[in-house]
Amino acid sequence: MNPTMLDSGMVRRKKEKGKQPVWGIPKGIVLLATPEGWRTSVLTAEGGMLCGRLDVPINTDPQDARAAAAVMVAELARDFHNTDVEVSWDPPQEPWSWTAQVTLAAESELPSPDAEG
């Protein structure tokens, strides 16, 4: 019997070189205050999730941390999808956890076809 990759206990995914990951359009944010610092999870419309540390000092005020998270998500949307988004924070359920809804910003650059001169 020939052993397979599954038999050896390890399966590896092929790496794609030179290809930048495609992040989905953000639809939500989870912000957590932890003893190690501020952590974020950005949920995407396609069902993905991007998690990481928010680049602010550990003693940052929660309101300032929420503002920094909103700016980070807006920059991701602009950089990866060339679109603007709006972030609306939900009332907190816990004193160390916040969630926000992310929606596409209203297009104000192009006039509607019905608009007159």
What does the model show?
The chain starts with 25 loop residues before the first strand and ends in a 13-residue tail after the last strand. Strand 4 and strand 5 form a beta hairpin. It has a five-stranded antiparallel sheet with strand order 3-2-1-5-4, covered by helices on one side. Helix content is 17%, strand content 30%. It is globular. By secondary structure, the chain is of the alpha+beta class.
Number of strands: 5
Widest beta sheet: strand line-up: 3-2-1-5-4
H/E element sequence: EEEHEE
**Percent of residues in beta strands?**
25-35%
Basic shape:
globular
Distance between the termini: 78 Å
Put the structure in a nutshell:
With 117 residues, the protein is an alpha+beta fold. The chain has one helix and five strands.
Describe the protein's topology.
Elements: E1 26-34, E2 37-44, E3 49-53, H1 62-81, E4 85-89, E5 97-104
Antiparallel strand pairs: 1-2, 1-5, 2-3, 4-5
Throw out a few tags for this protein.
alpha+beta; globular; single chain; 117 residues
